[in-house]
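User: Is it possible to get a 3D structure for a protein together with its bound compound? The compound here is iron/sulfur cluster. I've pasted both below.
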Amino acid sequence: MDIKKIQEILKDEPKFRIKQVYQAVFAKFIENWDEVTVLSLALREKLKAECPLEIPAEILESADKNTVKAAIDYDDGKVEAVLMRHGENRNTVCVSSQIGCLLGCEFCLTGQGGFERSLNFYEIVEQVLFFARYLKKYNERVSNIVFMGMGEPLMNYEEVMKAIRFLNDKETFNIGARKISISTVGIIDGIKKLAAEPLQINLALSLHAPDDELRNQLMPVSKNNPLPSLLKAVKSYIERTNRKVMIEYLMLDKINDSSAQAQRLADLLKAGLGRLFMVNLISYNETQKFKTSPAAVINNFKKILEREGVEVVQRFKFGRDIEGACGQLAKQRAKNKTG
Ligand code: SF4
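Assistant: Yes, that's possible. Here is the predicted structure of the complex:
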């Protein structure tokens, strides 16, 4: 699907007509141009031929159907998006912002797989549209979006923001800014830009280590974005937006999960951010390189943070049976092809 192409084909139509088409595609989630009866037959035929609505993708559903992963096909690669169904009409789509990633975090299969390119805004929107159509069958809608799939969203800032504005638009998806989160590994310049945006988007920071030494080993990008400056940028984001920041922390067995590291993390965050943050302890979807911390270790880590007055949540583990972590589907497919 090519949103730009739709604009091009409809450029001579009156404004109200274009609005009707956008509502049909991005609010009613139609899958066939024939459903847009306000358009002439000739125009529908042209759109069918030049701008098909199909989104080619391979789908994997978890056994309980609460997690659905789509690998959307582009000429030059695949983009992964994941739908997480929490019940009671809460449906989060985790979107990708790039094909592959330049940043090479050690625990991430996307990072190990190289980089193709950044996505443009309509390729990001398309991922949400794919699941909006999927949910329509169940009479449900996409309620939340997290930029936590392949790629670093703040390295594709302009297109990500364009996509967010489109998804937030009342005439299309109408997803509230407060329901949209950007997760970053800590790109300081991007965090500063985000703090100046008028939209109330949520920020999540993937920290994964309580000191620069370990962070540099796990996430090479942190060498140029050291913790003191990073936390300063996040603190000023909190002060400017008055919004709570989520600190993401992957629990990696015997790497970052000791009692001493929990204490260091609490001290670091209390001193660096002060207020309006919470820590999310995430069980890792195991790869060959790392294992997830045992439940008792995670519990101990959590208790130390809580004792120090730090708010902690534990994200529910979604989709283990369908390779839920970012980049894992692409890797699996590659393995299947070569094996
Ligand atoms: S964790 Fe995110 S930033 Fe790091 S390599 Fe993976 S996709 Fe890139």
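Residues 101, 103-105, 108, 110-111, 150-152, 185, 326 surround iron/sulfur cluster (CB under 6 Å). Residues 327-339 have pLDDT under 50 and may be disordered.
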